[in-house]
Design goal:
Blueprint: E1 29-30, E2 36-37, H1 40-47, H2 60-71, H3 79-82, H4 88-105, H5 110-120, H6 127-141, H7 148-154, E3 161-166, E4 169-174, H8 175-186, H9 189-194, E5 203-204, H10 213-216, E6 222-225, H11 229-248, E7 255-257, E8 267-270, H12 273-283, H13 290-293, E9 296-303, E10 318-324, E11 330-331, H14 337-340
Parallel strand pairs: 5-6, 8-10
Antiparallel strand pairs: 1-2, 3-4, 3-11, 4-6, 7-9, 9-10
Helix pairs in contact: 5-6, 7-11
């Protein structure tokens, strides 16, 4: 594939096309309010992961426990039963899964379970569980979206992105896809000789090919161009808006900007760990160094709406949001910050 923009006519993707099948959305039910309801089939899919499937050399206790959970995914497993599993890693993985399962079962919908994690923090939960939960919740949130730009931007909510500056453009490519291409190149003398960044072997999303996104969504092989305000950055802002509204009912429009021009802000959102560092400096009135400024991938401004779920004192406040880049040119978006970072009023 080529990093050059596509030249074929734009093809519209029917709204009924399935996408993000790997999220497991077909394994859950839907509540009357539209939220996702956990099922035994959804829980059993976790038990089929290689981290939890007992290897041939596993002890009888581990194999028996796994079989019993497959038969009854919601059954209570006492700590002393897990302690009998011989392999240390197996005990740890089972413990993580059961803690995650119990958290999901404690709430009426997966959205409610996600909101609780966004509010209280994931504590000792491995990041992969939060990413997988974001994946299936996002599949529900964007179910009726046909815009390939917005859907590709929303991939950032649950897939780490590799950052590349190529031919004057700021590009985000799926980290796993880039790693695969780099691995193949190292093992192919011809590819290695041809050189060029791995991102150049993928296809950049444009208005001409965005209609193909849903059919190819699980390949994660489209590159998101963040160069222009009206392109990938605007799409990311629209994805953020839909995510917040799906989970909270609060409409917040995000406007991508190149820089701040002396505005007074009353709130901010950090969109990733690096963005937290950068946003704190801006909030404190510091002028970003050139090095820090180069780590800013996207800036947004927004207004907190006059909505009953927003703290009354903050309604109407002008805010900003920052997405940053790590020193190793990765960005790991934290969509939970879009919820947990809001000045929400206590319900009830």
């Amino acid at each position: 594939m080529s990093a050059q923009p596509a030249t074929a006519p734009r093809e519209a993707s029917p709204i009924h096309d399935d996408f993000w099948v790997a999220s497991g959305h077909h394994l859950v039910d839907r509540a009357e309010n539209g939220g996702l309801v956990i099922t035994d089939a959804f829980l059993s899919a976790y038990l089929a992961r290689p981290e939890l499937v007992p290897p041939d050399e596993a002890c009888p206790v581990e194999r028996g426990l796994h079989a019993s959970l497959l038969a009854e995914p919601r059954r209570v497993v006492p700590a002393d039963e897990i302690a009998l599993v011989a392999d240390v890693d197996a005990r740890e993985n089972l413990g993580y899964f059961l803690a995650f399962r119990d958290h999901l079962l404690a709430y009426p919908t997966l959205e409610a379970a996600y909101l609780a994690l966004a509010d209280k923090g994931a504590r000792n939960l491995p990041p992969i569980f939060l990413q997988q939960l974001a994946h299936v919740v996002a599949r529900n949130a964007f179910d009726e979206v046909s815009d390939g730009w917005v859907l590709r931007a929303a991939e950032c909510f649950f897939r780490a992105q590799r950052i590349t500056f190529h031919e004057g453009r700021l590009l985000l490519a799926d980290e796993e896809m880039i790693d695969t291409h780099e691995h193949d190149r190292k093992h192919s003398p011809l590819l290695n000789m041809l050189g060029g960044p791995a991102v150049s072997e993928l296809e950049i999303l444009t208005d001409l090919n965005a209609g193909l996104y849903r059919a190819r969504s699980d390949a994660h092989d489209f590159v998101l161009d963040l160069t222009d305000l009206a392109g990938g950055r605007a799409a990311l802002g629209r994805a953020m808006t839909r995510w917040i509204e799906h989970l909270t009912g609060i409409p917040i429009a995000f406007e991508p900007v190149e820089k701040f021009s002396g505005e007074a802000f009353g709130w901010f959102l950090s969109l990733d760990s690096e963005g937290t560092v950068l946003a704190n400096k801006v909030w404190a009135g510091e002028v970003l160094t050139l090095e820090d400024a180069n780590r800013v991938l996207a800036l947004f401004t927004f207004n907190l709406p006059d909505h009953p779920r927003i703290l009354e004192a903050k309604r109407g406040a002008r805010g900003f949001a920052v997405l940053g880049s790590s020193t190793d040119r990765l960005t790991r978006f934290k969509p939970q910050n879009l919820i947990g970072g809001l000045p929400l009023a206590k319900e009830g």
